[in-house]
Design goal:
- By secondary structure, this protein is α/β, with parallel strands linked by helices.
- It has one domain: 3-Layer(aba) Sandwich (Rossmann fold).
- Strands 1-2-4-3-5-6-7-8 form an 8-stranded mixed β-sheet, with helices on both faces.
- Helix 11 links the parallel strand 7 and strand 8.
- Helix 2 packs across helix 3 and helix 8 runs antiparallel to helix 9.
- The longest helix is centred in the last third of the chain and has 20 residues.
- The chain is globular, with a radius of gyration of 17 Å.
Length: about 280
């Protein structure tokens, strides 16, 4: 499939690997200001190992799925988009991989729709409840300063789009220059940056908490990641009821781009564990 439609919005999708009965499926959810290309390295490696991979350009990123305002970007809508993709692809359960904001969607998908999630591989992103608690008693509040800054209308877009500021900022956080320039250039087109920032602006409108997750979880995070405090990282385990693994990588925030082999290994481990359980 090349895309799917929900509520009058059309989402572009990368669909790689075999589409056969019984084939394991991985759903890859990107963050901000990334797009589905963030998972190119992961997707091709998984497809080569017999896993079907679905990687959408999420709401605000796909040109034909870019509604105006902030209310269309509440978390419940983002999760419903992911469920609609699984439905459109004929997939009952997927191994979900989420990075950054895509990780927030992945945690919520696993908590709210456990029947659709075979496993969760969280990249960088701590459990939202662990982050919320850490904001009050650790460095997390300072690390998340930009969330408050993004609530200001228009100014963040003007600052980030001026003179290549977004690309330079992404480079300073450890993203290779070529990838940083690509994300920045695509973010500057057709209101895409404003739509991405709308995810943050919609946070005050979301009322449904993200509860504990019962699916098997692997949490991969870089020890050099500036966006998540140790309290958020360590507190995540409290919100997982199923099997849980946490692995620290020698990298920063951009795990899918810089550590695709580690991501693939973690997902294949979950696929193998599910196969062993089903065959028991």
């Amino acid at each position: 499939m090349e895309g799917y439609t929900r509520g009058g919005l059309h989402f572009d999708v990368t669909d790689l690997g075999p589409d056969l009965p019984g084939t394991p499926v991985a759903l890859c959810l990107h963050g901000f200001p990334q797009d589905r290309t963030a998972f190119d390295g992961v997707a091709h490696r998984l497809a080569a190992r017999g896993v079907r991979v679905l990687a959408p350009d999420q709401r605000g990123c796909s040109p034909r799925a870019r509604p105006r305002g902030r209310r269309p970007y509440v978390l419940s809508e983002l999760v419903a988009d992911a469920v609609a993709l699984l439905d459109a692809a004929g997939v009952q359960r997927a191994h979900v991989i989420g990075h950054d904001w895509g990780g927030v969607v992945a945690w919520a998908l696993a908590a709210w729709h456990p029947e659709r999630v075979a496993s969760l591989t969280a990249l960088s992103q701590a459990h939202p409840a662990a982050m919320g608690r850490a904001v009050l008693g650790s460095s997390q509040g300072l690390r998340s300063w930009y969330v408050g800054a993004f609530q200001v209308p228009l100014l963040p877009e003007l600052v980030l789009l001026r003179g290549g500021a977004l690309g330079r900022l992404l480079e300073r956080t450890g993203l290779p220059a070529e990838l940083a320039r690509g994300y920045a250039e695509r973010a500057a087109r057709g209101g895409r940056l404003a739509a991405g920032i709308a995810w943050y602006r919609a946070l005050p409108l979301g009322r449904r908490p993200v509860g504990p997750v019962s699916a098997p979880v692997t949490y991969l995070h870089g020890w050099q990641d500036p966006f998540y405090s140790p309290a958020s990282v360590l507190g995540t385990a409290e919100h997982v009821r199923g099997p849980y693994r946490r692995r620290t990588l020698d990298t920063g925030h951009w795990v899918p781009e810089l550590e695709p082999d580690a991501v693939v290994a973690a997902v294949l481990e979950q696929v193998g564990a599910e196969g062993s359980t089903m065959g028991a």
